[in-house]
Backbone:
């Protein structure tokens, strides 16, 4: 059984070599389609990011470590507050956006082992992405100041207008197009190989019929 499988694989590789032009043509076609779709059909997305940090209180030149520990426990709450409807609905209203738009494009996270909170927005308009992030941070700072009396939130990095798109990735889509092209072409060859029940040579005829071949009619066209 293992010998028969080895012969079949050998034949399959031979067929692939013989039809390598098909593989190349189909792969190049898929790469071109991926490139055209990336450049002309898929909307470019621009991301703007700001970072904020709860500052520890300093008294007489000394850092209040109790405040640092309190800030650590509050960071997750701050993240949820920024992502909440109270802040983002106000962002939509202030910028004249459709209800729920800010929440669909904004992301908030806490950098590992830090108190830094990262606020990002990704839209098809670089200026809009910057405005959404800036407004979300400002609304958040105002709300916790007015409702909780917290005034120690510092903006570490302000949101800036992106000069280049973060998606789609042309390189990634070209790789995907290459994989799809290889999958389609090789899959087509493999299926044809599996479904091909014809007898191609005398060895296959002897194995199939169980009797020796007495003669072969030559192919004069060759």
Residues:
């Amino acid at each position: 059984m293992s010998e028969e499988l080895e012969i079949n694989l050998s034949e399959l590789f031979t067929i692939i070599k013989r039809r390598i032009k098909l593989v190349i043509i189909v792969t190049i076609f898929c790469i071109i389609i991926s490139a055209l779709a990336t450049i002309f059909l898929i909307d470019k997305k621009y991301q703007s990011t700001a970072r904020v940090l709860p500052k520890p209180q300093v008294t007489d030149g000394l850092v209040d470590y109790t405040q640092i520990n309190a800030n650590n426990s509050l960071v997750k709450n701050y993240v949820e507050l920024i992502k909440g409807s109270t802040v983002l609905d106000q962002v939509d209203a202030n910028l004249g956006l459709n209800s729920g738009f800010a929440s669909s494009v904004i992301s908030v996270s806490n950098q590992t082992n830090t108190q830094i909170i990262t606020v990002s927005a990704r839209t098809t308009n670089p200026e809009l992405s910057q405005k959404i992030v800036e407004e979300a941070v400002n609304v958040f700072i105002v709300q916790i100041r007015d409702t909780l009396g917290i005034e120690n939130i510092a903006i570490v990095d302000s949101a800036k207008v992106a000069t280049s798109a973060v998606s789609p990735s042309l390189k990634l889509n070209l790789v995907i197009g290459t994989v799809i092209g290889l999958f389609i072409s090789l899959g087509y060859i493999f299926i044809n190989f599996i479904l091909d029940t014809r007898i191609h040579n005398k060895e296959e005829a002897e194995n199939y019929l169980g009797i020796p071949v007495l003669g072969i009619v030559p192919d004069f066209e060759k």
